[in-house]
């Protein structure tokens, strides 16, 4: 398994770990998620979604293929479609059970992925 | 595929290329020999997919540009790079932009909802509605995207049916099959069509948008109806009424109307090319200019267009150009004795070969490999080329045959035997219908 780190978002003002996601959906625009501190209401972070997968993984896959269908090679085969749900479940399970990191370099890594 | 297998196939392809290209073959010109080497390399790499399909296209163009031009008088290496921005590629790019606009503003979904709202509750009508809409969408957008959208729309209905209702399977087969068939009907429906049009254009035969639709739409409609009947017979619905509920409200803003207006003008432009004489490839620029100028689509959309598909098609066209310019086609005809075979036998043989290939490799790769040979062997006949392009869409047998089949199979409600049994019948009927049109109908429409 490739190495990865996990951290929990915290409020920059009150340092609370209690946050909520405000999902902004607008026709013609990418979905954006605003993270807000539930304790003091401070803006924590904004994520722009490239790909969304809900607990209904097959439906999420259909949505992705609708948007990116033309780029699918013929190697995108049945077993990959079938394996998609398992892959998501496994990655979630790994992520949820991983120790949380306080490494400051994570901020830099996330910053590198900024848009 | 594991790295070891990738290296193995790349090694095999390289070794075959080197040995075929450089060990003298009696009676074969060096240019044709080098092209044959590239052709075999492309065959191994496109079938194995050891490297991405579009990367193989770059390898093809590179090898042809290095090894072939010096053996052909008056041909510069740039002649083999030109297909990557040929009119048919531009036509396809226009199609991608239209499809992106429809998807971005949810217009494909709105269109599907508007039609499905009117199909009633009878299972046969609902199946016809889903298959018809899927085919209609796949004529203008990718078969994969059309399937993904329509299965997503159908899923609540499928899940609401009784567990043992055979119509569940029928619906899940009807949608991908309709997408595969619908792609046949327009030049931008699926890449094999564009490869055939591009290859014919290289050979001096122009087939415009309207003409292609005139040739391909009737067999497509026949196959759709036959497939619909077949599914109803094989998977008889258990219930008489299905509760299809399309809740979606139809709301289109000014941007959506602008997309639709551009779509209508572009399609009309394509269909009336013979009147205004503006080439279809130039008309394809209209959605590009309008959508991106008015901010309907952005740079991110531009970057996410199907460039890999366009490059793959470019590689196929480049290979086709090399096959004809180097005289490899003539050598194949003479040395394999294909020149003495009756045209009917050739037509049947190539259509059969394509249907077999397309069920195991990508449709585009199958067309890219077979069309250049057919062009040379057909001796001026164009029906086999169009027949091969349509046959490349008859990939119905297995989940691995084409992404639409894989998507339907991914629902977990289909078994391979369901797809194979139904798909085999549809594929055999497709071969029959294509041959019927190729041998009896198309010659009367000026396509010999």
Q: Can you describe what's shown?
A:
The complex is a heterodimer of chains A (115) and B (448). Chain A is an alpha+beta fold and 115 residues long. Chain A has two domains: 44 residues, no CATH class; 47 residues, no CATH class. Helix content of chain A is 35%, strand content 16%. Chain A contains three helices and three strands. In chain A, strands 1-2-3 form a three-stranded antiparallel beta sheet, with no helix packed on it. Chain A is globular, with a radius of gyration of 17 Å. The model of chain A has no long low-confidence stretch (mean pLDDT 81). Chain B is globular, with a radius of gyration of 22 Å. In chain B, 53% of the residues are buried. Chain B has 23 helices and no strands. In chain B, helix 19 runs parallel beside helix 21.
Q: Give average pLDDT of chain B, whole number.
A: 91
Q: Number of helical segments of chain B?
A: 23
Q: Low-confidence parts of chain A, pLDDT < 50 over ≥5 residues?
A: none
Q: Could you describe the largest sheet of chain A, including whether it forms a barrel?
A: 3 strands, antiparallel
User: From the alpha-carbon coordinates, what is the Rg of chain A to the nearest angstrom?
Assistant: 17 Å
The rounded distance between the terminal residues' Cα atoms of chain B is 43 Å
Helix content of chain A: 25-40%
What sort of overall outline of chain B do the alpha carbons produce when their principal axes are compared?
globular
N-C termini distance of chain A: 27 Å
List key phrases describing it.
heterodimer; A: 115 residues; alpha+beta; 3 strands; 35% helix; B: 448 residues; mainly alpha; globular
């Amino acid at each position: 398994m490739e190495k990865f780190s996990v951290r929990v978002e915290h409020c920059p003002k009150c340092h609370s770990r209690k946050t909520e996601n405000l999902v902004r959906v607008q026709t013609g625009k990418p979905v954006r998620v605003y993270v807000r501190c539930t304790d003091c209401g401070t803006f924590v972070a904004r994520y722009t979604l490239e790909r969304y997968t809900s607990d209904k993984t097959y439906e999420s896959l259909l949505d992705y293929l609708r948007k990116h269908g033309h780029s699918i090679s013929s190697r995108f085969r049945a077993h990959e479609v079938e394996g998609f749900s398992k892959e998501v479940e496994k990655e979630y399970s790994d992520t949820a059970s991983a120790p949380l990191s306080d490494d400051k370099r994570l901020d830099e890594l996330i910053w590198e992925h900024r848009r | 595929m594991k790295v070891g297998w990738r290296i193995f196939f790349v090694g095999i392809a390289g070794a075959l290329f080197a040995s075929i290209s450089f060990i003298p073959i009696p009676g074969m010109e060096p240019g044709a020999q080098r092209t044959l080497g590239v052709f075999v390399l492309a065959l191994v790499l496109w079938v194995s997919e050891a490297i991405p399909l579009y990367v193989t296209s770059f390898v093809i163009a590179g090898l042809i540009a290095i090894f072939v031009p010096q053996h052909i008088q008056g041909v510069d290496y740039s002649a083999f790079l030109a297909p990557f921005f040929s009119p048919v590629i531009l036509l396809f790019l226009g199609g991608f932009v239209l499809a992106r606009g429809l998807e971005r503003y949810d217009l494909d979904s709105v269109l599907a909802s508007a039609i499905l709202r009117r199909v009633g509750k009878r299972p046969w009508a609902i199946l016809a509605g889903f298959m018809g809409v899927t085919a209609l969408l796949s004529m203008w957008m990718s078969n994969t995207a059309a399937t993904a959208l329509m299965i997503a729309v159908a899923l609540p209905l499928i899940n609401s049916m009784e567990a043992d209702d055979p119509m569940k399977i029928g619906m899940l087969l009807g949608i991908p099959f309709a997408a595969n068939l619908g792609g046949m009907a327009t030049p931008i429906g699926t890449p094999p069509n564009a490869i055939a049009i591009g290859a014919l254009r290289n050979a001096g035969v122009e087939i415009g948008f309207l003409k292609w639709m005139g040739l391909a739409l009737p067999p497509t409609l026949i196959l759709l109806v036959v497939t619909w009947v077949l599914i109803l017979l094989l998977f008889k619905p258990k219930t008489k009424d299905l509760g299809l509920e399309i809740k979606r409200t139809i709301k289109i803003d000014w941007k959506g109307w602008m997309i639709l207006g551009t779509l209508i003008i572009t399609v009309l432009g394509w269909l009336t090319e013979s009147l205004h004489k503006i080439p279809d490839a130039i008309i394809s620029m209209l959605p590009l200019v309008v959508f991106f100028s008015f901010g309907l689509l952005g740079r991110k959309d531009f970057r996410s267009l199907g460039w890999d598909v366009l490059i793959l098609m470019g590689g196929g066209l480049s290979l086709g150009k090399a096959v004809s310019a180097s005289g490899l086609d003539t050598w194949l005809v003479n040395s394999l004795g294909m020149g003495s075979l009756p045209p009917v036998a050739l037509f049947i043989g190539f259509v059969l070969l394509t249907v077999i290939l397309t069920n195991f490799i990508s449709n585009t790769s199958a067309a890219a490999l077979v069309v250049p040979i057919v062009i040379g062997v057909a001796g001026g006949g164009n029906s086999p080329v169009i027949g091969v392009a349509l046959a490349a869409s008859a990939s119905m047998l297995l989940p691995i045959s084409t992404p639409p089949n894989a998507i339907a199979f991914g629902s977990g409600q289909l078994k391979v035997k369901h797809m194979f049994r139904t798909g085999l019948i549809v594929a055999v009927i497709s071969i029959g219908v294509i041959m019927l049109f190729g041998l009896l109908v198309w010659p009367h429409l000026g396509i010999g």
